[in-house]
Design goal:
Length: about 240
């Protein structure tokens, strides 16, 4: 994940969420709901319940994005990442976040959360192996393109800030499947926690309780791990 510099944020503020840039983006609008792989990970009420800081775990891993025509986005991610040096230390993450997106005039996309996102991290080899915490990171996608797949229809390609591709996303619906476009979780009483190795995390009171009691166990789906490997940022959260 990538925290944007101020200059990039200022540039994004001048962009319109309705603007298209080249013919490659015009196969279909970016608005709607998109999902990777087996398409079992889908944004909306079937994935996350922000008020309870809980998730409904899909049958397979993957990622889903939804974009509305008035500039809102929502992301659902479910991933497991293996560790080559410690094969038993498989890290699982489940993420929900939403906010506002901007299509920048240089062809990039900026996703800015509204502040109520959260994630569950399960790391069996860490001191705290399973917990829920706040997740609110601004993301930059360097570019995007939508092609017409002969079998699956519109296919969205997103490229991260460093140019690396996100798993291809297929359109589930031309209209977005989203939770309400407002702050959905109480984050006014954040608790700052310093871990034993000196790293700092921020949680709500509810997340802190879940962290001490243990979040529900993630059940790793059968089959290959879908999507990209969990980014290195996860290691700073443990």
């Amino acid at each position: 994940m990538f925290a944007l510099p101020l200059a990039a944020l200022l540039l994004a503020a001048t962009a319109s969420a309705q603007q298209d840039y080249t013919a490659a983006h015009n196969v279909t609008p970016i608005t709607g709901t998109w999902s990777s792989g087996s398409k079992h990970v889908v944004t909306g009420a079937g994935f996350a319940n922000p008020a309870q800081e809980s998730f409904t775990y899909p049958n397979t891993t993957g990622v889903s994005y939804s974009f509305s025509d008035d500039g809102w986005y929502e992301v659902a991610r479910y991933r497991f990442a293996s560790n080559a040096s410690e094969p038993n230390c498989i890290i699982g993450t489940v993420v929900w976040v939403h906010g506002h997106y901007d299509l920048v005039s240089n062809g990039s996309i900026v996703l800015t959360p509204v502040g109520d996102g959260y994630q569950q991290v399960q790391a069996p080899c860490a001191a705290t192996s399973n917990f829920i915490q706040n997740y609110n990171f601004t993301e930059l996608f360097q570019s995007w393109q939508i092609f017409m797949d002969p079998t699956d229809g519109p296919k969205l390609h997103l490229f991260q800030f460093d140019g690396s591709p996100v798993a291809p996303l297929f359109q589930l619906s031309p209209s977005p499947n989203m939770l309400p476009k407002q702050v959905l979780r109480n984050v006014t009483a954040n608790v700052v926690t310093v871990t034993s190795d000196g790293l700092v995390t921020t949680q709500t009171q509810g997340s802190r309780k879940k962290r001490s009691n243990g979040a529900p166990e993630l059940q790793r789906p059968l089959g290959a791990i879908a999507g990209l490997v969990v980014v290195a940022m996860v290691s700073t959260l443990l």
